[in-house]
Amino acid sequence: MFSQENNDKNRDTLPQIDLVHLKGKIISIHDKKPLQSAHIINLNSVKGTITNNKGEFEIPAVANDTIFISYIGYQSIKLKITNDLLKGNELEIAIHEKVVNIDEVTIKSHKLIGVLVVDAKNVPSDSYSRIHINGLPQAYEIGSSYNKSYNSGLGAIFNPVDFWYNKLGKKPQEIERLRKLKEGDQMRNIMEQKYSREIMMDYLDMSRKELNDLLTECNYSGRFINKASDLQIIEAVLECYENYRAIQKGTVKKDIIHIKDTVY
Hints:
This protein is an alpha+beta fold. It is 35% helix and 19% strand. The protein has two domains: 4-95, Sandwich (Immunoglobulin-like), CATH 2.60.40; 126-259, no CATH class.
């Protein structure tokens, strides 16, 4: 099987392969209407674009690239690019609406009376803040201490941060792709609008639960994990990775300084 890693190597070692601008149109499979502002991302080159008001897009690609297509309320798809798809014909890609199960919602009253001074005391405040580790430029959010209950000695030894740090350390290409996702206005704008975590899970080869566990171990609050955009989650994972690497190398102190809460 032709892997993304091999494909990227071929980009560097085979400069004679020219990029082709893949053209296409995204429509709804239900009513055939074009979908404006759908996200189109080349997972190999980490380049992205959005569809225009006619659902049309154009993105550079070579054979064996994988194109990720997503639109709010619709099922995301991955399309493997073949030589046949690059022959110049415009693609028409129909995607399905996503079936969403709505959980039960509980509405709680905070007994607000319309007086600002009184209401401010009745609205629950966040117990989260941001921390800074001496020697590092980044600051990240923390909540109250995360207490784990282990059912076995093996569970107590296992640490998700250690596991993913060691795993990602063997995959520098994936880390570099994450960095590219937050570089450039186009990719930053796309990732800032996304909340699905799909691209991150694809790059890191982890499930949503594994990603959430990793962020929890990195001392991010449940609120941040649930509400942050994909761009913020990418930055959080990279912060955690770089901070943990610096601590493992002994290049920073572990002194923690609390600063003003900036929870999103």
